[in-house]
Input
Amino acid sequence: MLFWLAQNEEHVVNIDHQVPMFKNSLQGFLKVLVVVIVVWLSTPAMSNTAVQLHVQDDQVVIDNGIFQLTLSNPGGIVTGIRYGGIDNLIELRNKDLNGGFWDLNWSEPGSQGTRGKFDTIEGTSFTVIVENEEQVELSFTRIWVPSLQGKQAPLKIDKRFVVLRGCSGFYSYAIFEHLEDMPAFIINTTRIAFMLNKDKFHYMAVADNRQRFMPDPEDRLPNRSQVLAYPEAVLLVDPLEPEFQGEVDDKYQYSCEDKDNRVHGWISFDPPVGFWQITPSNEFRTGGPFKQDLTSHVNPTTLAIFVTPHYAGADLVVKFEAGEIWKKVYGPVFIHLNSVPDKNEGLSLWDNAKEQMNIQVQSWPYNFPASEDFPLSNQRGILSGRLLVQDRYISKQNMPAKGAFVGLAAPGDVGSWQRECKGYQFWTRTDEAGYFTIKGIRAGDYNLYASVPGFIGDYRYDVAIKVAAGSVIETGDLVYGPPRDGPTLWEIGVPNRSAAEFYIPDPNPMYINKLYVNHPDRFRQYGLWERYADLYPDEDLVYTIGVSDYKKDWFFAQVTRKIGEKTYKGTTWQIKFKLGTMDQNGTYKLRLALASAQNSELQVRVNDAEANPPLFSTGEIGKDNAIARHGIHGLYWLFNVEVPSALLMQGDDKINTIYLTQTRHTSPFQGIMYDYIRLEGPSAST
Output
């Protein structure tokens, strides 16, 4: 017990603060002791055993006395994890994918779509980087030569695995490098994946309110399920466990924004063991804090995604020119293993995993990776400042940008960070006064960007920022002036880059996921796009300013209407409003902030539903597929439409109508999700 306390000070820091309150009280001491014992029981057993490495012809084994990790040699595929009374946490009996592995999906230059050739990255050479009593770090490297063109992604890849003394889990990271003699190509996806023992792991946890017992992998087979609108979504018709009958299983229902995607995994109750994937930093992910990615799902599978077009489309695949020099470190991520003696306490493993996640986040950047491509803390920079918002139609004074997302990403246009996928990004949130500090920044050239909840648009600091190793940069006060020409005449929704505040219908009773019944994330139910035609069978949505309520009367997605077998048509929504007085010579401004678009074209007309051409058209936009994947948002779009006063009517007896037409209609998933809509008067209006 004393050894555990000495090695795990972070677990008892809160207890230490309480000890003075009870130092004169035996009862208080006993309370503290009970708390310590409870925490100890839910924490993986510690060991002071030195880390040992055993190298064989076809495999390598690392053992630190807590668990044993086996990898293929020289491939670097995880083939075994022995821990907590289970001989192997990893599944090796699947038809296709087994073990734990890094992989990528890649395409030749000019390829259409985001699916290419699947490549399980197997090393061709094995090297011991570090071997001592405290740490073992192994490298599994694969090189590329011209004879492999068209057969293998043209990258030099170095996969690393690290085991530390006394640590209940292991780390993995990879260094991808594109060299000057390599041809052009595209990375669609790269990740590290673990296929877990399907006889043991049945309970999955992604968040406090997103965890449940999951169906068996066999339940998805054709004889037990019915494929729905796309292969990933199936209706469970004859599952092994009757409790799952009639439910939908779809891996996209468990996606998560990267800013919240820190820990997820699985629990076995016999014996009670947890397997958790922890991502301590988002610096190596793509697309910024709101990018959504897969987490864990039926198989059982646990993923750490680094590059993916999900919820974004081709904008977030990584495209390389021939001879382009590029290198990036993905990870490290941490695989945490925990256990408890009593299976009735199995759910406490999730709480312990969250505690471990906080420890890993606070330890970033790690001090143990041996690669010179991973800069340590003293080789990184810090940036601080304050962000204010200037909107004179709301306040005469500059306002603190409370809870704003502020980040550094590659130099680019305003908002370019959400499509940036080659470099590193560093994000934080401002406090109530608008102050922010970004730590652990890799040396390099950046722009500073921000997104402020409650205000449309994106901020970019016009001054380029160069971060050097060990530098401390203070920006001072920065002021964001969100798009604004005149006073707000009316608005629909809340500027938050999401459609979550709009009306989310109940799902068709035939397609339920029980987890999301009466759940804050009810938008993750399958098939909600089909509910639009149920609610509006004959006429499209009409929203009346001053009468309608966007929480009840604005459907979350403007989708197509099914009119026959695989036949659809576009939809036109109407916004009706009155203008008691108006500026006859001024120009009004319609702000359209979109949370998502999928192969859509939005046309705007004012007081003439048949106007040709329309007042405004977005052209075809978006391929984020967030509607089908239950995402409630994808990539953000902002359009500013000038509305001449000559198109509007004045008077309390005159009703103006804005027609919003989504014209594309080849799929049930085509459409847009609005974030926020606002009509502004001319700047001279009061």
About this structure: The radius of gyration is 27 Å. The first strand starts at residue 52 and ends at 55. The first helix runs from residue 2 to 7.
